[in-house]
What we know:
The complex is a heterodimer of chains A (339) and B (789). In chain A, 29% of the residues lie in helices and 20% in strands. Chain A has 339 residues and is of the alpha+beta class. Chain A starts with a strand and ends in a 15-residue tail after the last helix. In chain B, a hairpin with a 2-residue loop joins strand 23 and strand 24 (603-609). The interface between A and B is large, with 43 and 51 residues. Bound molecules: flavin-adenine dinucleotide.
Amino acid sequence: MNNFEYASPTSVEQAVALLSSTWGESEILAGGTDLLGRMKDYVSTPKRLINIKKLPGLHAISKENGGLRIGALVTLDRIPESSDIRKNYAALAECVAEAASPQIRNMATIGGNLCQRPRCWYFRNGMGLMPKNSEGKSLVAEGDNRYHAILGNDGPAYFVTPSTIAPMLLALNARVRLIGPGGPREIALENFFRVPHSEDEREHNLQANEILTDILVPAAGSGMRAANYEVRQKAAFDWPLVTAAAVLHMSGNTVQNARVVMGAVAPVPWLSSEAAEAVTGKAIDEETAAAAGRAAVSKARALSENGYKIQIAAVAVKRALLAASGQPVPNVFAQGGAA
Amino acid sequence: MPEQNQYSWPPSADRSYIGSRMGRVDGLAKASGHAKYTYDYNPKGLLYGAFVRCPHAHARITSIDTSAAESMRGVKAVEIVQKPGSEIHWAGDEVVAIAAIDEPTVRDAVRAVKVEYQELPHLVLDAKEPPRDIPPDTSPLGVDDLEGMFSNQVPSNQIIKEIKERGISFKPEEVPLDRIPPEIANAIKSAQQKPSEKKKVPSWYKPAAAETQGDPAGAFQGADTVVSEGVYGLPVIVHCCLESHGAVSEWTDSEHLLVHASTQFVSGIPGQMAEGLGIPAANIRAVQQNIGGGFGSKFAPDRWGIYSAKLSKKAGGAPVKMMLSRAEELEVAGCRPSAYARVRVAAKKDGTLTAWDSFGWGTGGPGGGGSPPIPYLIRDRVPNYRTQWTAVVNNIGPARAWRAPNHPQACLITMAALDDLAHKLGMDPLKFFEKNAELTGSRASIYRDEFPIADQLMGWSKRWHPRGDSTKGPIKRGLGMSMHTWGGRGHQSECDLTIQPDGSVTIKMGTQDLGTGTRTAIMAIAADTLGLTPPQITLLYGDTAYPMSGGSGGSTTIGGVSSTTRRAAVDARDALFGKVAPALGATPEQLEAAKGQIRVKGNASKGLSWKDACAKMGAVPINAHGKNLGGRDPLMNSGVGGVQMADVSVDTETGIVRVNKMVAVQDCGLVVSLETAESQCYGALIMGISYALYEEKVMDSTTGRMLNPNMEFYRLAGIGDLGELVVHMMVNKYDSRGVIGLGEPPVVSPGAAISNAVANAIGVRVPFLPLTPPRVLAALEESRKGTAA
Ligand SMILES: Cc1cc2nc3c(=O)[nH]c(=O)nc-3n(C[C@H](O)[C@H](O)[C@H](O)COP(=O)(O)OP(=O)(O)OC[C@H]3O[C@@H](n4cnc5c(N)ncnc54)[C@H](O)[C@@H]3O)c2cc1C
């Protein structure tokens, strides 16, 4: 790890002033579970770290406008512990409880989770986020892209969004509050993420000297049903191959409104209007859910090694919808034991 | 003292600890964190070592500039490992070694070294089938070729064959004849010497001549013949030792070195380090109390061992720690060679196996690699076969022995092909394997004993269904099985056992406990022989100050140390009998050591407590030296049999495989320590599930670098991935054979058993391990196309 300056401001204003307006010069340090690993591997080499854990007001889970306000510094372990979240946003609680490992959840903040950098193995091995070979072709497209994007992959970005929590928050229509030199601003989470086009850009809309302060989740509403489905190779502590979050607003058995978001399929959490449309006005059953799954990947395009992800993304969407509507979904890990 | 070959194991009635489920003697130390590993050795003044590594998979070093690193504050020593002009064969190979006052400084210094390379063409992939028309290399062998074969564990008979057929282009004196196996040294001495030839077309492929038996072409014909064809294989994987490789070296004076090494061969470290350091091996002391995994990859001191010593010397003798990072561990500390094969097998309609034909290939890195013994278990007896093998010479990294070298590969290819044949015959694989058990030769009776036990523990006969689980829904369940063998005769090993007049007992042995339970086994044997309990005995081990023991590889430790311990303990005990007999009014032959007493056999009232008995020794302790007889030793043996079964569920929509249950039925002759033997099997099943479902060294074809040198994407099974593991040791069944090694055998079958279970569940073979979603879904897709067409 390179040497760096370290600052631990106690006000948001100080923190913003300490941040450089150029990416790469300074980095915000929250739980450090992502950043420190990158620094040890020289993937990120900031000259200055700004510890934000001493900033006031970012550590709480509270009610706001009938919905939820989660401070950026709330650690992941606290989310499923909140009785409000367990009661009104059970799918969010479950999804957070599945992320990473207990040790990491104790350290990792929700703000850091949304801002964490991709796990793309070219990026993490120091070859860059959009690495190229000597002929200017993408190393990822030419190489081993089994875990890479099937949507939003026109290039040069082929990595996938890492957070397994962001899709759920996005499906819940969450917004984020940011603060920078020009004061605070608030944007929808779906506008927070974006596909970068060069190494100088990030996977989100933050400015280099902005801080994410809060996550705002709208009121749940009585007809809301939600579920998250992750396709993981291992039973626990494993990056999923694909995730899908579904949030339904039901009237009786009929879907009034749906938001379906896939994770690990594109450089951003992928909001699928196709999947939502496929179920709107219908009841969820095996057939409509499967049709929505197919619709979700109708525009997907495989790279050389990741065609299978199209299939499992469709299945993840189908199962998330079935689970959201309270129907059982197959679980290969639950078979267990001798017959 | 008994005649050399008249030592025997005590009858089962006289065993309190041998064969019992006595707990691990070091269990508490390990569970509580008191056990110290090489990594935990942090003496005062410790310096940290690290390497500058080549980022290219194949390159020549053109220049090295270490000046910036040398002038950095805190840098204490810099050594060039490979000079300009050297050719590098894999990414991550060592170029410069540096020691500095702390880890951050040394990492910075590594980055300050400037090395220029001329990049050369590389190949890091190996799954593609090689062309068949490449003629075998007939040019005389050079020293490099020979070294390549050694480092890739090419079997001796194969090396000798090549030496005879191709001749050599060097003088026998150019190689260290005294340090290579005598039969190979003899072949070299009598080999034809030829001028060296320039290799005609440089090729990534090294085909070996086909080997045949019977009439492999004709045997596939005939109305009564059923033929099955398939492709099977498994990729290069790594050892991923949880304690990475490394050593801490320090010069205790200008001529003497102390090395703490993470090693499978404590006694062998001085001999392997001396030459490079220019001091006598006698001046090197190597020690190791605990090791966090080796699996065949930790026999040599390696560059990290040698350079920790060189850097230490340069730094005035200060201790230098050279332990690999996780990424280095996965990139350079050893690969298990891949193996793939296109196979045809034939049987008569009644299930009698008649013929095998395979074209195989695989890589062990820059040397190509040895060929797995295909067809596995039946090679000596299947009436007709032809096998061809092409080694792929590539830049994926150096091969090292990986728990049961070549066997898991041969087993997967063979057992999957046979399972496919059984399916084609419409036979239950268990019936098929039973029917053909004779083809395994002398072990057939062991397998026959084990089949019904495995059957019962898995509920195979009740639950087995023909291929393709017809249950509704996407989750399909299936059963698969496999069988395996391994040699495992004990290695050379010696010990000193001392009984002091106050009754205390010490055993000194230069062996190592890889976590396999070696200490527990030694204690069990010594305790039973002396009639004591383990806490009454002190075991000193893991130090070259003690009598030598062989390397812990090839499942050779348990046989070696068990025989040696028994011999020393019997001799010491008999010497004690001699001193005590007069006091008991008996002859030494009439005495026994039991229950903490020396007494007249079967007569507890006519005895002395251990302490009182030892007091009869006077002031002179009894010392006995134990040394087993190697191949002639009746206390140990070789050649085990094991049968395994797997029960899996497969999500056919996502391709995720889950192991529900594994059954391992395992023989190892006389079981010395039941609980640690079972642990070996549990560990092997876990390792097996990992390589069956997850492990793969993923390489980037453009850069030639490993893409998953971490434990996020180099996946290992976690507790939740294991299902139920059932181990049955064949106790009290084959005791008369003596002690046989167990480390390797149980890891041979899991890949094959799990692959076969998946085929049984989903109705189609997934050709290659690991059984990941892309592979499972592709196989399902293939079969759907097949049915549609
Ligand atoms: C082994 C492992 C497994 C994991 N598995 C999962 C998983 O299954 N699912 C999942 O979702 N995640 C997973 N993660 C990622 C983990 O959740 C993130 O590392 C964590 O949430 C990041 O939070 P942090 O507070 O530690 O962030 P840090 O490491 O401190 O920061 C991460 C990045 O975000 C920036 N940042 C942090 N906070 C803010 C803020 N408030 N405003 C602006 N920028 C900010 C930092 O500058 C930095 O670039 C895993 C991580 C590891 C190491």
